[in-house]
Amino acid sequence: MNIQEALDAVAADAAKGEMVFPSHTEIALRVQRTLDDPDCSTEQLSKLISAEPLLSARVVSIANSVAYNSSGRAITDVRNAVSRLGFKTLRTLATALVVRQMQGMSQSPEHRALASRLWEHTAHVAALARVIAKRVTRQDPEAAFFAGIVHEVGGFYLISRASNFPGIFEGDFELWHNEGEAQVGRAVLGALGVPENIVSAVETLWDGFLAMPPSSLGDTLLLADQLSPVESPLAELAGMSRKGMVVDLELLIDDELLSSILKDSAEEVASLIAALKS
């Protein structure tokens, strides 16, 4: 099966509401629905998160990262972690659980390795986006963090379903970046209930046009993606490596300012990446 046939099959599944997600997706969706309830309490949310060991461990880990623990006081329970992080970050972490578990759906070692590399890229972009939002574009850092987590969600879904499409990564993969990334990505983002402002930011990434100076949430995501030291393996497969674009960015943006920001925030970025990859 070629890439076009695979994309058409995924699109048809999405139209019928038959997309296949990890078994724990329902927990993430329940967290989202709880967060949408204006009467949602920290106690209620904590109990729900505690029912999912992987999510509760991730919530406590992120709460103790440098990015969210300026006091240096370690937290060991979910309730205090929920209070420290806030509802926006919890929505992001619930969705991150789904994205991360997609790599476990891959049937072959090669596909699992591809998904693992894609998650490493995702973790870098999400951490960088949060810092860039605070220091450069003045966007909501938590929205930028969320956008970074889901910006490759279509790729994760395709990898998780690769066993249904033999040879999909062995042929001409350029169509993925021309059409497939957006086609599959929109379907998965919609199925996961991702907010419209985040979807719009990811669409800016797909379009690939970075405004100068960067100011929007989409610009934040683009800048983080292009500055990430870890390339998307799907971009490499499609012959669309962005490595050469970083030099251009450094010429267009105050290089001294950018270097200073990345240096000053290195510990924060490293702590978020470590927590997301754990």
Describe this structure in words.
The protein is built from 16 helices and no strands. It is mainly alpha-helical. The chain has a single domain (3-277), classed as Hypothetical protein af1432 (Orthogonal Bundle). The radius of gyration is 18 Å and the shape is globular. It starts with a helix and ends with a helix. The model has no long low-confidence stretch (mean pLDDT 83).
Average pLDDT, all residues: 83
Hey, roughly how much beta strand do the residues contain? under 5%
List SSEs in N-to-C order: HHHHHHHHHHHHHHHH
Largest beta-sheet characterization = none
Radius of gyration: 18 Å
Kindly give the count of domains: 1
Properties at a glance:
278 residues; mainly alpha; Hypothetical protein af1432; 16 helices; globular
